[in-house]
Amino acid sequence: MLATQKSLSLLNVMVMIPDIRKLSKEELTQHFQEMGEKSFRARQVHEWLWQKSARSFDEMTNLSKELREKLKHLFLLNSVSVATSQVSKDRTIKSGFRLYDGQIIEGVLIPTDERMTACVSSQVGCSLTCKFCATGKLDRIRNLDAAEIYDQVAIIKKQAEDNYAIPLSNIVYMGMGEPLLNYSNVLKSIERITAPDGLNMSPKRITVSTAGIAKMIMKLGDDGVKFNLALSLHAANDEKRNKIMPINEHNTLEALREALRYFYSKTESRVTYEYIVFNGFNDELVDAKELAEFCQTVPCKVNLIEYNPIEGGEFVNAKEDKLEVFKNFLESRNIIVNVRRSRGKDIDAACGQLANKNKVASLPGSKVSDEKRTAL
Q1: Is 17-74 CATH 1.10.150.530?
Q2: DSSP reduced 3-state for 110
Q3: 166 burial level (CB within 10 Å; 0-12, 13-18, 19+)
Q4: Residue 20 in contact with residue 49, Cβ under 8 Å?
């Protein structure tokens, strides 16, 4: 009852007070003019929010203290904070992020010799129930807004710089949730991440991964997106894909083929197929042949992904010799293939493992026990 009252109270406050990061630069300028402030102050605040990634008004040190106090009373700044951090033996960093309403999501910094990659979430939980994914065992609570996605990137970017002195190079929307079921906020977050008056990252360094929602893939084409698209395929056979990904029942492989052809005709962007190779399920030569045939749909590349076990899961990773035969067959058909090895598996930070396993309390103001923290 107390948690419900807190949530209702928070909702009432949000209805009355606008979230400053939901305002455009023009709307922000109008608010400042109505406040009797000079227009350049709005530009300064916009810069603090989206270029300097300020998560409180107190950080805006080129504003007077009086103005900062005024902003606190007039606007909400629903910033994301780090509730927990864990560091893997391979240097991967997984963070539990607390949202303004107390919900917890997870994001990951994945360091390799070639790049620093942020893996970010787009929803609290997920509604797709993929059989091999820990997040799929959770309920979908709500979509993240664009600023909450942006904050994950900004925090992970700082983790890369502070811990490894290397700038963030890539972003993948492969964390909790299905990005194309939060289409508007995902695209708004990418706009802020790539904008010259935002983080100014190249869209070609960003990949959005989908379980396969045909009509939304076509919408990406209509919107002429510049970022990369990845399809979590995992089987190029409807019967098998239905077993592990219920979404395939309404987004069949043929429907996905049509959507991908449309997407490519609009963007001319090569698509990536993600394919987890499961032992005894989709690791035979016949599976490789079906995948090779699907790869004829549009120019593409294939990421063969090591399976990461989850609690209560029914699958195990394919044997190395099977994986090698699978890879060699695809390459014999002139398909670009990368084998992606798991990183952060020891802290449940690898692909498919994000599920707030530490059970960080999802109540505003709750404390996380020290034993569930690993200092950076």
Answers
A1: yes
A2: strand
A3: exposed
A4: yes
One of 106, 148, 178, 274 is an active-site residue; which one?
Answer: 106
| Widest pairwise Cα distance in the chain | 71
Catalytic residue among 69, 133, 351, 371: 351
Q: Give the CA distances from residue 313 to residues 57, 133, 278, 310, 352, in Å, rounded to whole numbers and listed in that order.
A: 45, 8, 12, 5, 11
Q: Domain limits of the chain?
A: 17-74, 108-347
Buried b (16+ CB within 10 A) or exposed e, 205-222: bbbbbbbbbbebbbbbbe
Give the percent of the chain with pLDDT over 70. 86
Average pLDDT over residues 308-312: 69
| 106 catalytic per annotation | yes
pLDDT at 40 over 70: yes
pLDDT for 366 = 34
Amino acid type, 69: E
Confidence of residue 356 (pLDDT cuts 50, 70, 90): low
Average pLDDT of span 92-120: 95
Band (pLDDT 50/70/90 cuts) for residue 31 is very high
Topology of domain 108-347 in CATH is: TIM Barrel (3.20.20)
Q: Exposed (0-12), middle (13-18) or buried (19+): which is 306, by Cβ within 10 Å? A: middle
Do strands 116-119 and 170-173 pair parallel, antiparallel, or not at all (unpaired)? parallel
Query: How far is it, in rounded angstroms, from Cα 20 to Cα 51?
Result: 15
To the query of whether residue 351 is one of the catalytic residues in this protein, the response is: yes
Q: Are 210 and 188 in contact (CB under 8 A)?
A: no
CA nearest to 172, candidates 199, 152, 198? 152
Q: What are phi and psi of 108, to 5 degrees?
A: -135, 140
User: Which residue, among 111, 171, 154, 106, has the nearest Cα to 133 in the 3D structure?
Assistant: 106
Axis-axis angle for helices 146-164, 183-194 (nearest 10): 40
Residue 373 confidence (pLDDT) above 80: no
Which residue did the predictor score with more confidence, 316 or 177?
Answer: 177
